[in-house]
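Hey, I'm writing a tutorial for new members on how sequence and structure tokens pair up, and I'd like a real worked example in the thread rather than a made-up one. If someone can provide the structure for the chain below, I'll link this post from the tutorial.
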Amino acid sequence: MNGEASVLLEGPATEPAFADIRTHIEAAYDDSTLYDTNLKEAYARWYADWLDRLRAFIGDDQPRPAGGRTLLVVAQCGSERAPVVGQALYFEIDKRIERVSAIDAEVHLLLFDQLPASPRAALAARGTARHALRGKVQAIDARSGAAEINTDWFVDRGFVLHRAPRPFRPALSAGKQQVTVEIERPLIEQFEYEFGPPDKWVPELGPEELSDDEAGEAWSLVLGLIPEHESEAVVASRQDGAVQHQSWLPLLEYSPDSGSYILLSRGRRRRDG
């Protein structure tokens, strides 16, 4: 049974259409089995396999990121020594990056002798960074900012690493939030980072349209699914008798094109070799 759409059939119970429906329901019942909690892992595997076949059917053969979101911090260390395991690092990020601690984002710190010319240049040269470290978000303040921060290091507004004085009382920049990260270990792995919104599939609408003037609603024939970035389709909805169009807009990401050396990657994939 499909709970998202339905058709109302009315007529005598002896109509052939009702006999076909009853036969279909009986066949579905005979083929069904009771849910077995011992097979929960198998059910998940079967569902994942089905999704893989569906992706192949629609031509979506792009590899999926192997890891979750990553805060990538690129900074110049100069003659400074690098943070060590257990020490804390402070920096500021845009307030548009919400709930960083809630999404369990890893933090990757790349330190260069000289700051690369651009964030994309830094990503291209990440294998030559003098120090690469992994950390986890320890504290975040998106409100007025803490008066005093307990940290060993900080990255300034020019993306240069410094030893933090004691006490450390930074002035919070407008539109920013404070983040403190604990260094966990050296970052030995090499990753490819995913930026920008993931592909989403949207319906390709046909030229025909069905309308219900009494209800003030309209429907278009769905021809198939196409990637969102290739679609120029619009969603039409009626409100107060007027048709309003809403374009599908790309998801805002804190990407290398923003010019910032503190980036948010939506996924990461370990690089071979």
